[in-house]
Amino acid sequence: MILVTGGAGFIGSHVVDALLAAGHPVRVLDRQAGEHLDPRAELVLGDVRDPVAVQSAVSGVEHFLHHAAMVGLGTGIEDVADYAAHNDLGTAVLLRALAREGLRGRLVLASSMVVYGEGRYACDDHGIVRPPPRVRRDLDAGRFDPPCPRCGRPLRPRPVPEDAASDPRNVYAATKLHQEHLASAFARETGVATTALRYHNVFGPRMPRDTPYAGVVSIFASALAAGRAPQVFEDGGQLRDFVHVRDVARANLLALDAPPGVYNVCSGAPRSVGDLARELWAAHGNGAPPPEVTGRYRLGDVRHVFADPALARERLGFAAREDAGTRIAA
Where are the alpha helices (DSSP H) in the chain? Predict the structure, then answer.
């Protein structure tokens, strides 16, 4: 039996589909059934913070895939206690129950590229450098790209590998990194092979809509569906990696047999947020106005972060197959 927490949600339900298609029996722990959950999966209704529901869900489990989480930047620092409770306390309750159950299979954690903070940058004079967090003064003036912290010259964004230093720059990112730390401690204490999959910007069918906790593709799609112009923050030049949810689900299957570790789950083809908005509008605009570049910003956002896919290709056997362009619903 494979337990998938959050298995009725956007990514989790696709993971459940992939597991069932591969012939695995699946149990789901989620607070709601969800309209997309395959009825062949056994459902345990409950919260990951509830020891009684968790102990019931982990009984007889061979492998554990952890997708239950509060995601996105949310509405600001007011969300800090909720993020810590859902992501950190919930993970701790689950790991304690799995230790008591004597888990001997695999643990796969749905982590995120947000643990890196800013991505990797190179200075022509000083090589690889790590810029400090951006400040309001520069953002208000439209200076969105961080300069070299040593000479102040422009930097070139580079793909970020898994061994880059972690530097979470918002509450959600801090909780995702703590989840990784908790999982690593669990692995050391129990000997359970543990893998953290650092998802980049996931898109595809069943994306959440009309919520401040959704990703940028969902936000743009919601605007277009409502006939509104997508609102592009900053100058639209920020670079991200967009990976299809079916590729993400396949990475979870591969992680059950591949060497444990930390892997970027990405397309390997970065694009700017502004380009993405224009591509989505051209393909799915349905009469909506074109994207509007607003110059607004969120202090918890980073400028550029996109992944190096080499390690996942080499050790996980993963390479994205789905087009990361305009197929937001396919």
Answer: 10-21, 51-58, 80-83, 90-101, 136-140, 171-190, 216-225, 245-255, 273-284, 310-311
CB 183 within 8 A of CB 177: no
pLDDT in single tens digits along all 330 residues of the chain: 999 999 999 999 999 999 999 999 999 999 998 889 999 999 999 999 999 999 999 999 999 999 999 987 666 788 899 999 999 999 999 999 999 999 999 999 999 999 999 999 999 999 999 999 999 999 999 999 999 999 999 999 999 999 999 999 889 999 999 999 999 999 999 999 999 999 999 999 998 876 655 678 888 988 998 999 999 999 999 999 999 999 999 999 999 999 999 999 999 999 999 999 999 999 887 789 999 999 999 988 899 999 999 999 999 999 999 865 545 544
The token pair that represents 143 in the structure block: 């200076």
Angle, CA 167 vertex, CA 162 and CA 170 arms, to 5°: 120
The C-alpha atoms of residue 252 and residue 188 are separated, in whole angstroms, by: 21
Among 179, 165, 164, which Cα is nearest to 71's? 179
Verify whether residue 121 is a known catalytic residue: no
Selecting among 83, 116, 172, 263, the annotated active-site residue is 172
